[in-house]
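Extended Data, panel c. Modelled sequence:
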Amino acid sequence: MRYLTDIISSPYEIIKNLIVYRHLLYHLVFREIKGRFVGSIGGLFWHFAHPLLMVVIFLFVFVYVFKLRLGEGGSSLSVIYIMSGLFPWIIMSEGLSRGTSSLIENAIIIQKTSFPTEILPAKAVIAPFLSYGVAIIILAVYTVINMNEPFLKFLAIPFVIFLQLIFTLGIVFITSTLSVFFRDTIQIISLVTTFGLYLTPVLYPLSLLPEWAQRLMYFNPIFPFTMLYQMLFTSITGFSWTILFLAVFWTILLFIIGAFFFFKLKFEFADWL
C-alpha cells in the first residue's frame, strides 16, 4: 500500500516542484541554450548545423541514392516523410543524451546547495524542444503550402510535441538516476539512440518491414510518436486512434515510473556524486 501511495504521489510532487520553481527552470533553460554559443563566431548556426547536415545526408542517401519514393508526391513527399520523423528523433535523442548526464555534470551544485534536483534533467530535456521545435513548425508551413495538406490537422502538432516532451522527461528521470549509480548509463543511451534510429521506421515506411516486425513495433515506445508526426505531415498512412492511444499510454506509464524512480532516490544523489 505504501508503494502504491508513493507511485501516485511522486509524479504530483515532481510536477509541483517544477511549477513552484518555474522561474528558475526558465532561467536555466535559456542559459543552457545561450551557453552553448558563448564565444563562438557562428553562434546559433552551430546549433542547427549538425541536425541540418544529418538531414541533408539522409535525404541524399535515401531519396537520391536508394530512390525511395512514397505515394504520388514523388521526392517531395519522401523528403517531408523523412524529415517529419527525423526532426522529432533528433530532439528526443539530444534530450535523452543531455538529460542522462545532467546530474553528473551538476554534481557540485547538488552537493553544495538544496533545491529540487528534478529541475536539472527537466531543463536538459526542454532546451532542445525549444531549439529544434522551430524546425518542425517551419516544416509544417512548408507542407501546407507545397503539398496542399489540410491546415487544421497541423493544429495537433503542439499536443504531440507536449506528449513527446513528457514522454522524454519520464525516460530521462530513469536514465539520469541510473547514471548516478551506474556511470556507463550515458554510453548505453548513446548506443540505444544511434541504433534506435535505424530500428524504428523513421527513415523508411513501416510497410517495408515484414509483418512480424511490424507487430513488434507496437512494443517500441518511440514508434507511436514517429508515426504520429508522419501521419500529421503526410497522407501516406491514415490517422490511427491505436497509435494515438499507444503514445498517450507510453507517456503516462513512463512518466509515472520515471517520477517514482527519481523521487525515491533523489535524496541519495549527493552521497553518490
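The chain is about 75% helix and 0% strand. This feature is highlighted in the accompanying rendering.
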